[in-house]
Design brief:
It is built from two helices and no strands. By secondary structure, the protein is mainly alpha-helical.
Length: 58
């Protein structure tokens, strides 16, 4: 009954992940490959953290 009040721990992280992907795409379009690589690396790290949390929750 009270499960609906529990927050999803990865919801905020997924939002940040999507923002990083969009930021990386814009950097790539502008030709800034160093920023693209850095942001992509950050997003991959965040994605692995999200997967670890979701795997532990099951």
């Amino acid at each position: 009954m009270f499960g609906m009040f529990n927050s999803n721990p990865t919801k905020k992280m997924r939002k940040q992940y999507n923002m990083l992907l969009e930021k990386a795409m814009l950097a790539q379009r502008n030709g800034d490959m160093k920023s693209y690589a850095k942001i992509t690396e950050e997003s991959e790290t965040l994605w692995s953290e999200i997967q670890a949390i979701e795997k532990g929750a099951k």
